[in-house]
Structure formats: structure tokens, C-alpha cells
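S., here's the first fold you wanted:
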Amino acid sequence: MTVDAIASEFAHFVTESPTAFHAASVARDRLVAAGFTDLDETAAWPTDPGAYVVVRDGAVIAWRLPESATATTPFRILGAHTDSPGFRIKPNPTVRVGGWEQLNVEVYGGPVLSTWFDRDLRIAGRVVHRDGTTSLFDTVDAVARIPNLAIHLDRGANDGPALDKQRHTLPIVGTDGSTGGSDAMAWLHSRLGESAVSWDLFFADAQAPSRIGIDRAFLASGRMDNLTSVHAGLRGLLEAPGDGDHIPVFAAFDHEEIGSSSPSGAGGPFLEDVLARVQEGLGASRSDSARAFRSSWLLSSDAGHLVHPNYSEKHDPTNRPRPGGGPLLKISANQRYMTEAKGTAVFAAACGAAGVDHQPFVNVNTIPGGSTIGPIAATRLGIPTIDIGVGLLSMHSVRELVHVDDLADLHAAVAAFLA
């Protein structure tokens, strides 16, 4: 695929994926359309060679089982996460102040709060019905806004406002229903349907991704941390031949932004459960499983930081990733990223096969930086792990920025790793 085609397809994927639940569902639908078999965790699974996918809440795992697979065949796993920082609607959310109707929200993860103000927001998430089935919900159109305070009422606004996560981040959705205006909960219930009994609903930016820059070299979009990696893993598995000396796996987890400790997070048993069932179908013993794991590789792909031109002192003085320079190879002596020398060689080989460059990323010593699913999954499974990702500006902002060449190079490197 061309750079433009990848950027366009990714932009469409982001638009379809306002929440982790949507991202997992969209990924499954695209895999099923390509011939993958959708599996139910409560049913027995086939053991025949083929292509399979399973969804657990907001997480999705898919794999290709080659004809030649045996009990000790290693895995090549691309790990990512489907969730992004934002706001989740609380129970009993209605708030009415000064003629406005608002919805009470809880901050999810670590968003750059100020970037969410004066944005047109949609509501999306998962709905559970009376019969136990679930469905996805998305207003698509914008229905809310978190308003800034006018500078006339806060002359120090440009000095950096002190934001209260409870008082200052509640979106307005209408006018006070008690004065003949809207009734947010009645409206929401009418949209969710009479059978809805519970839901997990979030706010998401309603603005579509767009190409910007004088040469249209950049893509501006929400939720690129970490849908960039989810989309790259999805495309990589779709392109993987599945007839090599390993089992290619695409694993996108939920809840990375809040620690990954959940049944659908990287700290939970989802990937371990899936790999165990695959190996059981191959007749693997405990010893066979251990041998396969030690020959396997996990490529943990999560967004990283490009050098910010206005804050260059926040970056390492000798490792300075630049836009258009290729995906980042993330390194940390303190194991916040899992890349070591052997993993560096493996990723360099994948980039060489794909014909793309890569760039080392190390945090400046005075700023510890974030972490990824890499250390969590590696600790749980014992599989050798490499941390990579595409470089961004404005990470955790409501709208992040990527160079489209880096987006395409990440796709190529991931596809080469899984091939």
C-alpha cells in the first residue's frame, strides 16, 4: 500500500473506533471479512490450521496457524492497546447549573486536560441489554462540549489555569430540563433502547482525522496512542502468509492507560489463555510450551515521543527522533521498555527486510517517561520482548500528530516481523 492509502485507511479506522470496544470490534470484523474464523471463548475451539480471531470486551487477539505448526513452534506476537485517555460517564450523571445541563464524568487515564476544552465531543461505548447481549453505541455526531472560561473572567488564563478534574471537566449537553429544556438521561435512554440495562460510555473527539502541513506530511487525529499500533498489527496479520516457521499473532489489549490489570488487559490472562489453547490443540506438553515461549518474540508497539521543537530540553541530548525518520526502538536501562541487544537485532532485521529505517528512543535522565504493555506481558509470559512504536507530538492530547511516512514505515516493519 502507498503512504497515502495507509494514512487514509488508518484515518477511517480511527473514525470507526471512538472507544476500545469499537476498536476491537472493527478489527474483528475486518479479519472475519478476510476469512478469519470468529471464536467464542465459552466454546471448544478448532485445532485445524487456519486463521482465527477472538474478542474479550475491548481486547482482540488473532492468529494464523500454519500447516507445519508443531507443539514447539514459536510465536511472533505484535502487542498493542486499544484504549486512549479521556472521560467516562459516571452513574447518575445529570448535573444542572445556571440553566445548563451537564454530564458528570470520571477522568480515564492521563489526558492533557486543557486540550479537551472547547472541542466537539461524541458519546460512544458498550451497552448491555436485558437478555445479556451487548451492542455498541456511538452518537457519531457531536453532542457535548467542555467549555473554557472566558478570559474576561480569568485574566490569568494564559498563565496556565489550575484545572479541577471534578468541577472543571464536566461537558455541557443541553439546557436545564427543569426549565423546559433538554433532559439528557431521557435522551440517552431513548438512544440506547428500551432493553438497555447498563453501559460503559465515554466521550470522544468528534472531529475526523485530517492531513495537514504545507506538503500534507502530517496526520492530525485523536486516539493515535495507540490505534496507530492496533492498525499496524491488524494490517500486518492480514498480510502475513501464515506458512512460515512461527505462529503470527496480533494481540490488542484494553486498559493500558490505567495499568493493564484487568481480564482484558496485558496484565490479565487473555493472551496466556489464547496461547495455551492454541498449544493444547497442537498437543503441547508443559515442557513443549516452555520451549516454544523461549523461542518466541513479542513486539510491544506503543506510541513514543518525537523531539518537541519548543521543548527540546525535555529530550535526550544524543537520541533525538525526528519526524519521517522511521519507527522508534524504545530502550530503558530500568526496564520501562524491554528492548535489549538481542531484540534490537531482531527489529533491525525486520526493518531491513521492510526497507525502512528505525530510530532509538531513550528518555532523558531527569524524566522517567511512561511505560508500555511490554514489561507487563514479558513478566507474565516470559517471552522475550521488544518495545517499539511510532513517534508522535502531543501524546495524550485530544488530538495528536504523526508524520505519515512514519505511519507507513511502522506498518511495513510490523508486517515484516509477523511474516
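And the second, which I think is the more interesting of the pair:
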Amino acid sequence: MQTSKECVLNAIEGKGPDRIPLCMDFDSDALNRAITENIVKDYNADILIIPSYDPEFVPVAEGYTQWGYKMETFGETMGEVKNPPLKNWENFENWKSHLPDFTAPGRYAEAKRCRQLYPDKFLVGGLGMMMEEIINLRGYANCMVDYYDEEENLNRLIDCLYEVGKQMVDGYAEAGMDAVMAWEDWGLQRGPMMSYQMWETYYYDRMKSFVDYIHKKGMKYFLHSCGHITYLLDVFTEFGVDVIQMDQQMNMGLELLGKWTGKICFLCPVDIQHSVQMTKEEMGSYIKDMIHALSTEKGGFMYKAYPQPAAIHMPEEQLRQEIELMKNG
């Protein structure tokens, strides 16, 4: 039997995994923990995602993130930023001066500990939301206007985020991680968040350089992106993004996504907009269709449970059902 690390690498590289690799990385708040704490104990995950956080960092105020904002939650969702710290660009230098030290050794102590504790697991260092932080820092409406009216300021912010990203890549590489992962939602429900031409202007060269940087450090690159993102999948495969993690598939369709089968490794749960409403038979049928569409005989598909089951009202029993069906898929 292949070790977790061997199985995951074989799935990513198309070298024949002996099973579908599993990733069960869940949010640690009380609502999600109530659903998942026994599941984590009962299932042997192949992929572990290790977050980056400096235990010595002091936020600007209680409840604020390392990026200087506070998420205001409503219901079971992660919420949104009500008062973006960069609502006014005049605050940029002050905001930047209060960022934590992303090179601090303590930030990667947990990654090093996990590497020693789980030598045969596939370990992924979490980079955070990367470019999605622009929305949190500026606010969605401001952010969308910035692409037209604030090119200089927006470029300063993007460069800052990529520089921090590279510092984190360095820290994770030194800690012995197998990959790093960023969360970037580039799509809306039925189409792109922006035109490809606009995306290319701001991100093409930067992302290409970033992916190259990660690979030179000997790690794989996992990229999360939800929404309708087919307008970027050719570019992601061109750059050598190793794994695309998408929580939605049905809005694009498995047949269309199959165009990239064998070119990039898919890391997915059952579509989170539909899974809770599915019967066991429907879920089992969809899982078989998804595996058939998105993988080859030599791999190309892995499973990642949705990290916020409470947000989609998925009970523990149904989450267990999804995992079991995926294992037997």
C-alpha cells in the first residue's frame, strides 16, 4: 500500500495512486467542530493543511486578523469585512507597517512539528486568501473600481501580497512542506469575475513568477478557486498549477471541466451547492460521474471535504456518507 505522500504525488503527477487521496481540513469554530470532530478521529487523511500564524503576533485589536481587519459573521458563514482597513489608500503605509513578520521562525514551528510527527503524510502550507485579500482590505465595490481607476495603488498592494506570499513559501519550504495552497475565488456563479484581459494585465506575469518560485523550492502549488473559472484554467495549466481545488463543479459542468482532465489535478468535494439536497443514490451517482470525468486511469482526482459543513447545513451523518462514497468511488 502506498504511503499518503506517495499516493498524493502519484495522483498529482498521473503515476497511478492506489486509492483516491483524502483531505479533511475543517474550520475549528464550535459549529463546524461539532460536526467534524469525530470524523477527523475516524478517518485517516492523506493530506494535511497547516496554517501559518505567528503566536507572538499582536493584532491591532481583539478579533482582528493578521491583515488588520475583522470578519463580521452572520449565521454559520465566515462573514465579511465591515470596515476595510484600506478603504482609503492614504492608510496604505500605516497598514503595511502593522503587518506581522512573515519570516518569523515561530510562524512555521507548527509546520516543522507536523513534518516530524507525520513523515509519510502529504503536508500543505496554507498561504491564506492571497489575492482575495484585496477584497477584504478594500471592500468589493472599491476593489472592482480600482482595476480601472487606481492602477498605481492597486499594483502596490498586489506586489505587497505576492512578496508576503514568497516569504511564506520560503518558510514552508524550510519546514519541509510538500506543497503550499492559496485561496482565490476568481469566478462568479455563471461567469468570470473580470475579463480575461483585465486579469492578464494585473496577474499573468506575477502568478507565473509565483508558481515558478514555488516549484524552484521543490513544492507543489494547490490553488482554490470557486465560481465559473474555466476562463482561467488554460492559464493555470500553462503556469504549471499542480492542483485546482474547487468546491463547485455543476455550475460549469463535468463535461466542460473534463477538457482539463490529465492537465491538472482536481481536488473536490461533491458540489456544495447541491450535496445536502442529494439522496445517497444521487450522491453516489454524481461521485462516479465526477471521478470518471475529472481523472484518468493514472490519477488526476483527489477528495477534499468542505471545511465549513455548518455553512451548508450538512449534518455529520451525511458528511460521513459522502466520505464513504468517495472512498469507494
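Why I say that: The longest strand covers residues 122-126. The CA atoms of residues 262 and 300 lie 6 Å apart.

Talk tomorrow,
H.
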